[in-house]
Amino acid sequence: MTEKPKLVLGTLSCPVRLVIAAPYRSLLTQEFSSQICHKNAHGRGSPFPHRTGGCPIFKSRESSVMFVLSFICFYMNFVAILMDTYMNIHNMERAMEGVRLAFPIASGLCIHQFMRLRREAVERLLGLTKPFTWEGAPTRDPHTGRLTMAAWIRRINTSAKKISALLIFIHFTYIFFRNVSSKGRLLQFNTWYPFETLSSPQYEIVNATQFIGSIMCLCSFVAFTSLYATLVCIACSQLEKLRANLLDIRQEFGTPAQDSGAETDTEEEEQVQMSQEVFCRMQEQLNDCIRHHQLILEYGHYLNQMNSRRLTFDICRMT
């Protein structure tokens, strides 16, 4: 009587893990232009909000115009706000207005610097998502009825665009009513400059730089938040996909593949051959799940390593 084959799965050591992940690492050496097309097609997010915020993601070199704009409109205005707070330290109301404005701008500057200094790490992390797919995943959990992580990935990009448009509209409305309600000329923010700002063309230039700096700050906030949320949802969606694949294998394994009532040797050999095919197919599926799990672990480790410093600053800022 032929012995029933056993399902044997070897443990994956670290060298094997590197061999498995090597084909996917080679994807990172491709041109970033093809990555952009792939990411936009599958909802991994658009680099436009980051570029609007002054972070040239997926560009070989940074535009000199964007660098000058980010320096003048973002950093110089922040210094001007701090200088105005210092010059009016005895005016508590005006000083507090400057402090309330300086804190969110400082957080936006940290996001801006983080994205500039860690640009290659962000691009590599986005490259690690290329082997992952979630387009065929269900949008609702069959047990709870809640949205799955794959469904949230599709909604994050749309929500980020709507939130950005809403914040820009609110800011523009604030500027409009501030100028209409004031009797004289007022800047968007209380700032101090070593020159006269209420006469033309200095007044128009300073207002333009403050408006552009505000848009860059808002885009930095929304872009980084939506990017981090998308990356986390990608990891969670892959865990959901891995769990679904394992459940499918379990259901297939639970299906009886051998008839206990077989009487002849020919029927028994056919059943054994069928069992061998089932076990080989199951072993192949389990190996695919193991490879998928190793990629998820690598991606999650790199995601945590990249964002640990930025999240630490956010926690300190909120406390």
From TrEMBL:
GO biological process terms, semicolon-separated: signal transduction
Domain of life: Eukaryota
Topology versus the membrane: Multi-pass membrane protein
Subcellular localization(s) per the UniProt record: Cell membrane
GO CC aspect terms: plasma membrane
InterPro entries, alphabetized: 7tm6_olfct_rcpt
Keywords of the record: Cell membrane, Membrane, Olfaction, Receptor, Sensory transduction, Transducer, Transmembrane, Transmembrane helix
Primary location class: membrane
UniProt-recorded Gene Ontology molecular function terms: odorant binding; olfactory receptor activity
Record Pfam families: 7tm_6
Coiled coil segments of this chain: none
TM regions (residue ranges): 66-86, 163-180, 211-236
The protein's name in its UniProt record: Odorant receptor
